[in-house]
Amino acid sequence: MITWATAFLDSTAADWDRTLAFWQAATASTLSPFRGPDHAFVTLVPAEGEGFLRAQRVRSGPGGVHLDLHVPDVRAAADAAVRLGAREVAASDHVVLASPGGLPFCCVDAYPARRPAPVTWPRPGGGTHASLLDQLAIDVPAEHWAVERAFWAAFTGWPEQPTAPGASLVPLRRPGGLPLRLLLQRLDEPAGPVRAHLDLACTDRAAETDRHVALGARVADVRARWTALADPAGRRYCLTDRDPGTGALT
User: Fold this and answer.
1) Which of 13, 37, 99, 189 is the most exposed place for a label (fewest CB within 10 A)?
2) pTM for this one?
3) CATH (one of 3.10.180.10, 3.50.50.60, 3.30.365.10, 3.90.180.10) for 4-109
4) Which of 108, 102, 114, 112 is nearest to 140 (CA)?
5) pLDDT tens for residues 135-171?
6) What is the CATH number of domain 119-240?
7) Where exactly are the structural domains of the chain?
8) What is the SS3 assignment for 233?
9) Among residues 125, 148, 113, which one has the least CA distance to residue 43?
10) What DSSP string describes 89-154?
């Protein structure tokens, strides 16, 4: 049983300060005390509710995003993930794993938590709009699509929402109170590693895009239902036309 979910911003030392500054401003959060070896871990704390966005300074690699799933029995959950096709990478008080297609994730201890509410922002011309970081999208090249869909639905116990046959976007139904939805997205790429990006739901995508660009983001692509951006460190994420309270498409 998954009781909470946390998204991690994995950042190199070169990108650490600008990653923290941008995502603090984008989510209206503050930083917890730094912790861990070399003070390499920090939580972005919302104004109310429990933090579910954290950052980790990594020693090597390109950075990106990974997922922590909070469970009552870390060892049992990790063993279940391995039986379903995951690979165990390391274990201590938590277990680091990789999905069948290679997406890093961790099983960590559960704790009581309360989901934050959407944040309300002023529009320059008057009025307000709202947004909330609320989804981790798992980006899956075609060769991994079937096995990743089966793995994440089975491991989380979250059923897939009904979609049209051949759909490339398949959301999982999270339990009430959890902060992050999971969305499986089939990429046009035939092969390659599975990775992840963050999505924000917003009531006015144009206004939210302008706000993020003013904070240093760059627009990469505009689609009918979402806008893809890159943060100042080059990390891709999306703004979507979903209700920040429910996560559903408006």
Assistant:
1) 37
2) 0.96
3) 3.10.180.10
4) 102
5) 999 999 999 999 999 999 999 999 999 999 999 999 9
6) 3.10.180.10
7) 4-109, 119-240
8) coil
9) 113
10) EEESSSEEEE-TT--EEEEEE-----PPPPEEEE-TTSSEEEEEEEEEEEEE-GGGHHHHHHHHHH
